[in-house]
Every structure is written in structure tokens, then in C-alpha cells.
Amino acid sequence: MSNENLTVPDPRRVGVVDKVVIILDALEVGPANLSTLVERTGIPRPTAHRIATSLMGHRLLSKDDLGRYMLGQRLTELSSAVGSDRLMSSADPILQQLRDLTGESAQLFRRQGQFRVCVASVERPVGLRDTIPVGSRLSMKAGSAAQVLLAWEDHQRLVSGLAGAKFTPTALAAVRRRGWAESTAEREAGVASVSAPVFGRNGKVQAAVSISGPIERLTVHPGRLHAEVVIRAANQLTEWLGQNSLPQS
């Protein structure tokens, strides 16, 4: 492939970091074997090979079935992290609106390993409420937000996540089908919640928007009361992240 569309600095006058960027830019147009990578970048073959090998060690590059260099999974993960920062910066006004519409505390959760972490929270100002401060680490084994964060995972992570969980595969299938989850006394006695997924550009669930409060107000079927408005809030965040259309159930 020709490098005529790439603006390549003189590799003799740039440092290692610059060479890394030049290689990543060159692979943005598609996979390349070492010879093609040298052609696209102008970087000497031994140097290109050394840098590419190092980038593979950091998962910034990988190889396809033909043995060609291609952009790696780590770049996707870093891109998701950027989306997370953007997500949190826009969450508060949407959560405030959700709280005002439902009268219940509203939260935004993201998965971190075996936990879900509250990254944004707006509490009901008065009366009995479910208080979840920002930074709280809750179990991925219980609660409507945990259901949402797990329901769209691949099969292996789904099976692993269900081990010891208070919800069942049937429950997660229902979450995927209808696009929201509910729980009553699953995470904590007397507490009910409703959650919906926020999707990123890659079609994967990036976060869960939730409301939570006492069962006395939310009832044993809180989704009947608030699923529609929670989904609407989650869709606003999905659209803000640049998702043009929601994945199919």
C-alpha cells in the first residue's frame, strides 16, 4: 500500500515516542507486514521491528491471521477510558433530571473487575433514601446495575459472573430482551432499584444508569413504575457518547 496519503516526518529527526506515533498512524489505514510498515513510515527496518515488537508487548499492536501488524486491543481499552471521562462529565445533569422525575436517588455505575463502582450520584434531598456515595464499590453479584453490566458480556464472562450471583441466566436473558433490569431486596434488604445500559461506540455496555430507594415507594416491581424514564436517561448518555443506534437485544 502506498504511503502517499500519510504525512511522515523525517524519521532521522524524531525521537522514539514520535516513531511510535508514526507507526500507529501508519497502521490506522490497515494492517501491514514489516516491509510495508517500513515503506509507510520511512523508519529503518531494524528500528521499526524493535518498536513494533515492544508495542506488541504492551498490547498496543497485535498481529492478524496473516502475520501482519495491526492496532491492538489496548487502544480500544484506552479509548473506552476516554469515553468514561466524557461520560462522567455529562452524567450529573441527566441524573439530576432522573431524580426529579422519579423522586429517587440516581446513580451511574461502571464495572471494575469483580466490582461495580459508583462514578456519579445524585441523592433524593429529603426523606427515606438509598445513599450510595461516589466511589462506592458494590458487588457484581446482586442488584439491577450488576445485572445490566453483566447481561451483555461474552459467554465466558457471563458464566463466570453468574457464579454465586443472586440472579439467574433467565433473569439476564430478560434484561437483554427488554433493555432494563430491576431488583428488590437483592443487594440490601428493603431496597429496590431499576437500571438501564449505556452503550459505547463499540456497542459494548460502558455503564449502568440506576435509581434506587425503599421498596415501600418503588414496590416489588419497580420497573413498572420507572423503567421507561431510566431507559430514556441511559439513552441520552449513549447518544452523547456518539452511539448512532442501540445494539439489538
TrEMBL record:
InterPro entries: GAF-like_dom_sf, HTH_MetabolicPath_Reg, Tscrpt_reg_IclR_C, Tscrpt_reg_IclR_N, WH-like_DNA-bd_sf, WH_DNA-bd_sf
Superkingdom, taxonomy of origin: Bacteria
Domain HTH iclR-type: 14-73
Signal sequence extent: none
Domain IclR-ED: 74-243
Pfam families, per database record: HTH_IclR, IclR_C
Record keywords: DNA-binding, Transcription, Transcription regulation
SUPFAM superfamilies linked: GAF domain-like, Winged helix' DNA-binding domain
Protein name as it appears in the record: IclR family transcriptional regulator
Entry keyword annotation includes Transcription: yes
